[in-house]
Amino acid sequence: SQQGEEDPQALSIQEGENATMNCSYKTSINNLQWYRQNSGRGLVHLILIRSNEREKHSGRLRVTLDTSKKSSSLLITASRAADTASYFCARDSNDYKLSFGAGTTVTVRA
Amino acid sequence: EPEVTQTPSHQVTQMGQEVILRCVPISNHLYFYWYRQILGQKVEFLVSFYNNEISEKSEIFDDQFSVERPDGSNFTLKIRSTKLEDSAMYFCASNRDGAYEQYFGPGTRLTVT
Predict the structure, then answer these.
(1) Looking at CA atoms only, how far is residue A31 from chain B in angstroms?
(2) Residue A4 forms contact with B (CB below 8 Å)
(3) pLDDT tens, B89-111?
(4) Cβ of A91: how many Cβ atoms within 10 Å?
(5) What is the CA B78 to chain-centroid distance, rounded?
(6) Which of B22, B24, B57, B78 is a Cys-bridge partner for B47, taking CB atoms 3.0 to 4.6 Å apart?
């Protein structure tokens, strides 16, 4: 499969804690993107990291990319109840098509 | 902020019936997509569309599926003869030329009975 795989499948943390989830992929990437999906809703783009980048920040999000290991991680710092959602990594290709991983469901407890 | 819209939000249909799912992508976007998500599973690519033709389609997108951009704003997905296994959330997405980030609509939940 060319699609990413995330771990863990589910994560439950206390508000204020950090949440880390990982994504692995099997084929070369153009970019690696992360999306969030609230229950029953559409996907929202969070952050994109290019294949020649190693780390990227956006607000409370930090993404790393290790192309030698074909893996990426998403860190959410100081989590809030509103961060409760499913998070998906997606590999894109030159034709823009996205190939999604299975996702990590994050529950932030108040 | 502009957004992708989809109608209807929920469609219930009987097996064998035709359905048309509608999307209005963001107006200055040039690339359009349909994805589906079966309950509890990953989001799967169905088809991409650019310059009034299909750019790529997945194995899922068989002869029962078709897409159309009938005017300057709408982008539709038609399933000719629905099957039980077509029950899923269908998401439309779009992006600008040169930008890889895609903007997704809220989805249409299709239930085939």
Answers:
(1) 8
(2) no
(3) 999 999 998 899 999 999 999 99
(4) 25
(5) 9
(6) B57
